[in-house]
Amino acid sequence: MSSAAFKSTVSQFVLSNDQVHKIIAGLTSELVEGLSTTDPKNITQQPSYITRLPTGKETGLYLAVDMGGTNLRTAAVHLLGDGQVGVTMEKHEITHQLKTGTGQAMFDWIADCTASLLKSVALDMGNADLQMGVTFSFALHQTAINRGKVLAMGKGFDLSDVMGKDLKDLLEDGFKRKNLPIVVSAIINDTVGTLVSHAYVSPSTKIGVILATGTNAAYIERASEVSKYKGPACDQMILNTEWDAMGKADYLPQTKYDKEIDAVSLVPGFQEFEKMVSGLYMGELVRLALVDLIQQKAVFTFLNGIVPESLKTRLAFKTLFMSTIESDNSSDHSSIDRVFKTSFGIEGLSAQDRADVHELIHTIGKRSAKMTAAACAALLRKANGASVKLDDPKEITTIGIDGSVFEKYPHFSRKMMDELTDILGQDRASRVRLELARDGGCIGAALVAMVSHSGGAV
Length: 458
Known about the structure:
By secondary structure, the protein is α/β, with parallel strands linked by helices.
């Protein structure tokens, strides 16, 4: 039987209905605030300068770069019409050395990766400039469809001489240094890319979500609501919410472990919502809770309260381990033994230890799904009556979701949908679809680059 200390620890990660609705109300308040704020420290609700979604009929060949928290993807994207695309893509890991080095080194490397793609696809358009769309998974102060100043990055990035610089200039300077005739004709956020690309395939898509190393969302808002937007007149605007940076202590149900993660992060007090739900942090929550429970002799009692060195390393317990363990349907959770033996050199777990570890992991994973669903509910309610028609029985609203947590974490989508049903009610929830969106960054960037280059208003 689990100890009282174990039950107390796990209960901190269980959300009540009141807590869920408090999250929705808090996020909604921040969504509204972000529409008008001019505070440079508030990076939420960034206008994308994209005022319509694709029709699915667009055609052409465009380059794309997708810079995320873990990898850089380069792609040649052939838009074929009828919602069809052909993609040649290469993926490159962004090393810690690159993440914490100079901006010039980073953008020279991006140019080298792009040159590698061009060589592999043997793309030669003579003397013509190659048009590129760029997906940038970090906050930008966008000033045009192809220009944006880099804001705080997060996700382990600490580049010198980049903050406040225009991303188009940073990229094109790198291409020039490598003698590549490439023009950046569109810059979008990865979540905007997910929304745009999934709408190309599924026209009912009104919200795009990323749930991977980090998390973010984009949705379609009435332009009249976005008072801080100073661009050309339009009826609607896709907004990059930067919901990762939302979340205040007065409504986020932070445990002491969440607060510890925040305290030792590169930027304490920044991206507090993200630190509670995304792939970079879920495994770390498990590790911190386990360390605490071992010290209390509430689990792994054979260790006599002494935490193994292998478990003391920050981020040592990967969210991938959680996924592996939750995928194991055996009654004795034998995968737990394998994970702890292989990755931490810990052997001798009892049946109760395995049951406790499984319960802890399941509860933390479920909290992430519930909090993400609450954030989606806030967006659905904010957009309801405009781009979203929750009360119209003939209207379906699709949320396109890209990212390893949504795609690979066991039962995550079902847990999200169950929570949305609880929040919205059966009728409204039945008009909402959660769909996996893949490679949204590259395809979305290519779509926006195509429309921008052809002179049409996106």
